[in-house]
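step 3/5: co-fold with nicotinamide-adenine-dinucleotide
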Amino acid sequence: MSGTHFRRVALIGLGLIGSSIAWATRRAGAADEIVGYARSAQTRATARKLGFCHKVVESPAEAVEDADLVIVCVPVGACGAVTAEIAGSLAAGAIVSDVGSVKTSVIAQMAPHLPANVHFVPAHPLAGTEHSGPESGFAELFDSRWCILTPLPDADPHATRRLRSYWEALGARTDEMTAEHHDLVLAVTSHVPHAIAYTMVGVADDLQRVTDSEVIRYSAAGFRDFTRIAASDPTMWRDVFLNNREAVLDILGRFAEELFVVQRAIRTGDGDYLHDYFTRTRAIRRGII
Ligand code: NAD
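step 4/5: write tokens
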């Protein structure tokens, strides 16, 4: 049997990421059976109607029975409670993973509940949209996107390799790093940009002299592109900020320092500074496809 094939994949949480994993697993033929669980009856009904799982069950414990791969796909703040619910039903030798956007906190929440006879390999696919829920998933979500694995120091290398090749079968490119480094990298590339986008929408809404309808009508001038990610799920993002507090505050502090320098250059009319700064940052941005 190839390293990418699992007998039974259990997905706990069937929102954007859980449903996309199911669709991508089917496309890849990477599992004989996909079993899903979602907390809300409505999500379970939608999942059954859409048919991305072979079976949608009524409890997380039932979903993980006999599964050789279990992926927890719930908001970061719920990972510990969900793991406590499944811990007693996990099959010996199963790989247990997650997709959380923050790694140190998820590891701290999940690891204490897991029995010694399973392999815990945390992971984070850097793929998403501003949509959420089971209807928003699609098989191509992970194509050519990175999936970062953050195995613990005592992780079984065979389990890590199996999970890597599974994500590659789903279309992703994979990499490994420590959970701490992941959280710092993601604070820069994802978490702080989301905080700033949400804040910019708040600023526009709070202005007395510019109406909401003007903001909407003239948003193509930058606001629309810049704030697209502020349409993302509030529960997910609340949990990301509360669980990656240190790295986010570090990067937000640096952002505030840079912003003050730019603000001062604008106030003092320092065109040379602004031109040099924008030339340098434009070159960096153009290097990112
Ligand atoms: P989503 O809102 O689309 O789905 C979340 C799922 O978790 C739903 O099935 C919901 O019913 C369930 N859930 C919510 N709270 C729960 C709780 N307390 N207990 C049990 N189940 C609960 O969210 P999503 O975008 O699929 O995100 C899921 C995970 O994936 C999060 O940890 C997020 O950090 C991570 N992630 C998201 C993105 C993205 O861009 N959306 C990208 C990569 C990773």
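step 5/5: annotate
Residues 114 and 269 are 59 Å apart (CA to CA).
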